[in-house]
Every structure is written in C-alpha cells, then in structure tokens.
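Write out the bound-state structure for S-adenosylmethionine.
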Amino acid sequence: MTDVFRLPTPGEVGAFYDEANELITRFQGGNMHYGYWTGPDDDSSFEVAGQRLTDIVIDKLGVRPGDRVLDVGCGPGKPGVHLARRTGAAVLGISVSERDVALAGARARAEGLADRAVFQHADATALPFEPESFDAVMLLESIVHIPDRAQVLGQVSRVLRPGGRAVLTDFVRRGEDLEQDAETQAAVAAALWAWRAAPLVRAEDYPGFAEQAGLVIDEITDITMQTMYTYPRTYEAMREYAERHDDLPEDLQRILDMGLDEDFDPDMVSEGVIIVALHRP
Ligand SMILES: C[S@@+](CC[C@H](N)C(=O)[O-])C[C@H]1O[C@@H](n2cnc3c(N)ncnc32)[C@H](O)[C@@H]1O
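---
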C-alpha cells in the first residue's frame, strides 16, 4: 500500500500527469488549474473561469514582446501558448511529464505558434538553463507539487535576469491550525497524495521562502473566495465521466471515492489559493 505521508518525487508527479493530464484538462476547461469566479452568481464555464485566472497571472507578469518567459509546469500547454500569443513573448515551457510536453508542442504547432512556444522535459528543482536567461517565470499551479518551495524559488532566481519577475499560484492553509486526530491527518495526506501534491504551506511562509531564494515579494493575493468553486465543479465533471466510462485512472477514482465535503462552509475555508508576484533585485 502507498505510504500517503511520503513526499511526491518529480518522477512520481510526471507519471501521474502522463496518465491523467488529458482527463484533468477535460474536467477543467482545457487547463489544469483552478478557475476564477467573481462570486456565487458567476455562472461562467470552467473554460472561461480558467482562462480568467491565466490572464490574471499573465497581467501580473507584465511581459513585453520579445521577452523570454519560462513556463514552469506547462501542462498540456494552454496557458503557455496563450501567453506567447497574447504578449508576443517567446515561451519555453517545461514539465516532468513527457505526455504534457508532447501535447503542449502539438498545441503550439496547431495554433501556429511553434516558433515562439517551445516545450521540453525538465525538472524545476534542477533547471538546466544558464543563469539570467529569462525575463520572467510563470509557475501556474506547479509549485504545489514541490515540497521545498524555497529551493525551487532559488532555481527561479538563478535563471531570472536582475529585475525579472516571477508569478506563481500555490495552495495554502488558512486560519488557525486545528488539532487533527490521526484519522483526519491520514485522510488529508491521502487527498494530497491522490493529486501528487506536496504538503500545504501558508501565505505567511512566503516572505521567508523568497528571502532564502534571493527574491523580493511584490504582492501576495488571496484568491480563495474566487477559486473555491473549482473543486465541486471538477468533482461533478469527474463523476459524470465515471458514470459513462470505466477507464478513470486509479488516482482519480480514489479522489471520486473520497466524496465532496457536504458541510462545506465558505466562511470557514481552511485551505485556499494565493497568487504570489516576486522579482529578482
Ligand atoms: C496542476 S498542473 C498545471 C499545468 C499548467 N500550468 C496549467 O495551469 O494548466 C501542474 C504541472 O506542473 C508540472 N510539474 C510538477 N512538478 C514539476 C517539477 N518538479 N518540474 C517541472 N514541472 C513540474 C506537472 O508536470 C504539471 O504539468
């Protein structure tokens, strides 16, 4: 049996996405990240809400035509290709999933952007690039898989030129740390493991991570209230799929089996999402 308290390795994360990325993008409107809804009355599709979050991150990156942008954890390439098209920048996307890289490259070719959106297999914890070789780095929901946030930010800092910017999204714990019995701890660890996610950090940890990495935080934005509609929608899409097909990967089936939290109270959200914008001095 899997030890759910074990931290996911880059290889294990890559194997998870090799198997699940096409279904996750199907459940999440073409991306593999949270959607951004303005409130309970916003009935935007997942595709629209996901694109909105991509655009918010791109706005914060502030890149210009001709800039070189590293997209860390590119998934099947929708955000990276969009970034290249919208800004005129040249994007190099990386992932630990070969299947991500293949799909992202195919998307860039299909959209006529293969000259400015290129994808390759690489691990963010050991970036194979020269120092100061990028103007900006985007980490859209990829750092969530990396247990040592400060270490990967150190890699980002090394490849950024002075003055270059990085923008990331991360999953965080919020509010008081509640005492958890062993059963709850195991359930939380199992849910994280099912997505090959690393243990959650807190927004308050980020200044320390940035300092260790030689980066400066410009802004931390809590988007929990805008993104909290993501999980119920992903879950419903997964459930509908499972009713008609019998090929749901084991990890996604496990997520489905865990069920939705019926007592979900928006005022007591203990897990959330932040956007962090940083620059290299
Ligand atoms: C939740 S998906 C996000 C994909 C894409 N950024 C998006 O928003 O649609 C996480 C991505 O991060 C990648 N990833 C996770 N750990 C990584 C690492 N150590 N190095 C490179 N990529 C990694 C995964 O392979 C996957 O492509």
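---
The chain has one domain: 10-279.
The CA atoms of residues 40 and 133 lie 42 Å apart.
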